[in-house]
Please model this.
Amino acid sequence: MSIQPHPSLVQRLGSVLWPSFLSAGVAAGIFFANIDPETLRAATVPSWEISRMAGYAVGFFMFWGATAFSSALTLLLLQKPAPADAAPPDNDRNAA
Model:
């Protein structure tokens, strides 16, 4: 049985950001196929003056943030705990 090395930071970022990007694209496509950002803006915050394209961008990044949080939480929950038989670090030795 081989021991798998810890994934690098780039691998962990990729495993969070890429699937969340794809999911955000699908979610934004479905959402904005049914809801016009201009109508949504007028119904929620009529004082904002943003374009329809800015509404699409803000919506996509909101979906990407939500799905990235979900992916990061999954990555966190899949981490293996430290071995129970590992001795805690001895900080008293370094104090002398």
Residues 15-78 form one domain. The helical segments are 9-34, 37-44, 52-78, 92-95.
